[in-house]
Amino acid sequence: TGPAGANSALVTVDRADSSRLSILIDPRCPDLADGFARLEGAQASVLQALSQRQAEPRLPGEQEQELLDTLADQLPRLLARASELQAECAGLRKGHGALGQELSALQSEQGRLIQLLSESQGHMAHLVNSVSDVLDALQRDRALGRPHVKADLQRAPARGSRPRGCANGSRPRDCLDVLLSGQQEDGVYSVFPTHDPAGFQVYCDMRTDGGGW
């Protein structure tokens, strides 16, 4: 609702019941040393006045004497309480400084984590690009290899020649049997699966992943 001082502000809160609550906000850690000094000076002045009053020859009345005794009894207690409050204030100020240091350390750690996250994102982007390049290369190699395989399958054997079979003369069931018989070159071979004893010709890959495909 408006400034209340050079470094503070006055805030008014409107409650649900239409009442208002005014709060003074001061972000500074208050310095109460001057206030404690003034309190100690006032206590010393009261004690001095009591001493002078008691030293006067005229005897005070009973009610006045009771008041003086009460004041003399309460002032030392107030002085002790003021000392306790002063010590607590010093402890709070020390804790405030420690919190400030911890906050600075947390801010530095936050900056370091942000930098690490940024570097990790850069590395991840580089890794994704590398994987994408490898996949593209594999896709190109696969596309280039398909016409070659298709042409080999469609190529008829030369007249008078027979498709290759097992090196030991046995009837292979599939390309793996051809490979196990000792043939290690890619090409068209005759196979005789169990379900087709007459056999037919297939192109066998003897290099990929151990061969026999």
UniProtKB/TrEMBL annotation:
Domain Fibrinogen C-terminal per the UniProt entry, residue ranges: 166-213
Keyword match Repeat: no
Compartment(s) where it occurs, according to its Swiss-Prot or TrEMBL record: Secreted
Keyword Disulfide bond attached: no
Keywords: Secreted
One GO CC term on file: extracellular region
Pfam family, one: Fibrinogen_C
Protein name from the UniProt record: Fibrinogen C-terminal domain-containing protein
Organism: Cervus elaphus hippelaphus (European red deer)
